[in-house]
Design brief:
rod-shaped; 72% helix; 0% strand; 9 helices; mainly alpha
Length: 216
């Protein structure tokens, strides 16, 4: 065998060994994966359009309604018919005048109206619970509608609904803060009244014992 014949035989052997690679390059599917092929067979015509639809179709927003004006109304109710400030109603260590009726005429209405107003605010929030239940039912209705037939569920709508739910929780915290504010004001008024009465009684008694001169 001369050198030309040896080269031809070697080349033929290499071609025979490399035949699977050439076959794949020429379009032969030498490895088959039926489950994957079935799952991705409609990816262009069905799956990708459905994914795009789910990412761009809204439907979970618009449930939240701002309660800003309602909370402002509650705050105004708390201050209704209270003519004096807590500082002017309860100045602290001052000698009582001989006639205390003008003082009582100022303090008693403010005290009573503060408690009346607190009751009214709590009553209004309690009466608003029906609307609160309606909002929750609306959220649940939208949530149920997102679990429909394949291709109808929207990821964007689901994210929007989560935001709506969080806004509802935040609104409940606003109501809670309003009630907490009412409670703090009631306690502050009550304690200020008690301390004011005690301090004025003590300074008035001390002044009377000191021949009308206020001890300092």
């Amino acid at each position: 065998m001369n050198w030309r014949t040896a080269i031809i035989v070697a080349a033929a052997g290499l071609l025979w060994l490399a035949r699977p690679a050439y076959a794949q390059l020429l379009g032969c599917s030498c490895v088959s994966d039926p489950p994957t092929e079935t799952a991705t067979g409609d990816i262009d015509g069905v799956q990708l359009p459905n994914i795009e639809l789910a990412l761009t179709t809204p439907g979970g927003s618009g449930i939240y309604q701002s309660a800003g004006q309602y909370i402002d109304q509650l705050s105004q109710t708390m201050g209704a018919n209270v003519t004096g400030t807590i500082q002017s109603d309860f100045p602290g260590e001052e000698v009582l005048p001989p006639d205390t009726m003008p003082v009582l005429d100022q303090i008693v209405p403010d005290a009573l109206n503060t408690y009346y107003n607190a009751w009214t605010v709590a009553d209004q929030i309690e009466g608003n619970m029906d609307q609160d239940a309606s909002a929750l039912a609306n959220i649940e209705q939208v949530n149920s509608s997102l679990g429909g037939a394949p291709g109808s569920a929207s990821l964007l709508a689901a994210v929007q609904l989560v935001v709506e739910s969080n806004l509802h929780v935040a609104q409940e915290l606003q109501y809670t803060n309003e009630l907490l504010s009412v409670e703090i004001k009631m306690h502050a008024f009550e304690h200020a009244e008690q301390l004011n009465e005690k301090s004025q009684a003590e300074i008035t008694e001390a002044t009377a014992s000191n021949w009308g001169s206020t001890p300092r």
